[in-house]
Amino acid sequence: MLEGKSIVVTGAGGGIGRAIALAAAAEGASVVVNDIGAALDGSGGDAGPAHQVVAEIIDAGGQAVANTSSVSDPEGAEAMIAAALDAFGRIDGVVNNAGVLRDGFFHKMSAEQFDQVLKVHLYGSFNVSRAAAPHFKDQGSGAFVHMTSTSGLIGNVAQANYSAAKMALVGMSKSIALDMQRFGVRSNCIAPFAWSRMISSIKVDSDEQRARVSKLQQMTPDKVAAMAAYLLSDAAQEVSGQIFCVRNNEIFLFSQPRPVRSVHRGEGWTVADIAEHAIPALKSDFYPLDVSSDVFSWDPV
């Protein structure tokens, strides 16, 4: 379903990114496998992972080239798109998957911890998408797939930086979908549940957390990869501006913020009126302070 297409997948040296690169190649795409080879906290760099995935694709009869640029560097993002154009003559899709984690409780989080996560997840996705956008516009087609997270959509503890970046990605994806729809360009998000290096960093210090991790280990990246490959294909040409979630064999469409209830007072509201009337009337529709595991509380099927 991706025959003749050229796709860039960031953070594709392992985990979900690797699975997406392999799935895209299996569907006929030529793939730029991007991975800087950094540790989970963003430190270091090893060119090996990207080249290993390229070798897997080529051994299976596909076409791929490696790129080790950093998504957080605008020039590096331009180099990724240039790699696709140089090797395959075109660019048809971008999967923004690269990420780092610097978890910590908000009252202890440093500016550097916050900044680094946003630089990779949010700025990185902007950089690569922006580098591809003029080419998509000129050819009248293209697809963006951005990896968001239920940590942003629902919430999670000790991840203010990660949650902020992942929620911001949703807004950016919707704006791209609106701005570029007239050029035949699509933009969608996936919130993935899958065992990966990033998920493996979850702190496990209780039976409840061990049980949660055990469930996550059942959710393999290839389940997410199939959805990403579909969104890159022409079969998804009428799908844009949406938020999907893949959890093992389940695919969810997420809601997007819309008004749920209102109160009106013809003479306007004083502070006291809000306290006495507005909030009591709205309170039954308040959202609880859930985390992702509260909402997705059942076993994966």
Automatic annotation (TrEMBL):
Record PANTHER family: BLL2957 PROTEIN, DEHYDROGENASES, SHORT CHAIN
Family as reported in the entry's similarity comment: Belongs to the short-chain dehydrogenases/reductases (SDR) family.
Residue span(s) of domain Ketoreductase: 5-198
Pfam families listed in its UniProt record: adh_short_C2
Originating species: Pseudooceanicola pacificus
The protein's name: SDR family oxidoreductase
